Amino acid sequence: MINCTTVAGLRGACDAARLDQRSVGFVPTMGYFHAGHRSLMRMARTANELVVVSIFVNPLQFGPTEDLSAYPRDLARDIEMVESEGVDVLFVPTVDEMYPEPTQTTVHVAGLTEGLCGAARPTHFDGVTTVVAKLLSMVGPCRGYFGKKDFQQLAVVRRMSAGLNLPVEIVGCPIVRESDGLAMSSRNSYLSEFERSAATVLSKALFWASETVVRGERDPQRVIASVRQVSILEPTVELEYVEVRSVGDLSTLDALDGDVVVAVAARVGGARLIDNCTLSIRGDDVRVDLGVLVHPSIERIPTCNE
Ligand code: AMP
Prior knowledge:
Strand 3 (50-55), helix 3 and strand 4 (89-91) form a beta-alpha-beta unit. The chain has 9 helices and 12 strands. The protein is 35% helix and 24% strand. Adenosine monophosphate is lined by residues 29-30, 36-37, 39-40, 146-147, 149-150, 173, 175-176, 183-186.
């Protein structure tokens, strides 16, 4: 595996692969890997000859009161994981390598970034689109792999990539869940054992809400109410939002139809967690996508007491 820290090193490896007619799959991350990240690497591995993973905790996407300095990091463990996934290039730049000068050039996607997570994190998506545009420009033509767990991020990155004519195919990957349903996240490491157990109410609420749709519910407000009713059973979980939106443009809906996402964000102890499920509704036919459960043999992220 090539382990590089410079933009020139990353560009060189990707250009050389393409010169050899080898396709490039790219997985941008902030590290502290779990099975969700690994599933993206596996999807990239099956479809591409060169697999590139970046680890960069991007200061630009954290608000002034957010968890930038506390964000979990373990580079030695991450390196072992990328090696075991057969990754070809690991790019771990410093902040100075990514932002040699104070940032004056940013990328903004209007509209899609305004509600949902954008409401509580008003500068977050500009930070994401700026760093993803920079990384995609460094990697060059490729397939880029993004998790559906961050479904708003995925929609925003797709829109940015189309809007800027980036030579990139954006691939959305299923949500990977712990065996009790909790969506895997590096931020789960902030949770105590008690909070972690309470946090499973989010996926239970999404499951319950999707069941109501399968049974015929088409009123978004009632679906939202059913998520709230289940979540209220765990007072440790403070809902920030529950929303039902159309998948493509994240617009609000009067009635459930077509491809729809039910999305939640919540505070649990010191962590802000997000989760969602997507529903494909064609008349009476409803397909629910809650993602996949991790194989029990895969180690789960320890809680903060472990
Ligand atoms: P992060 O390191 O949290 O910035 O995430 C890097 C990539 O992994 C993003 O595209 C995320 O959407 C994706 N990801 C994070 N958690 C999961 C998960 N549980 N399942 C699938 N993809 C995930």
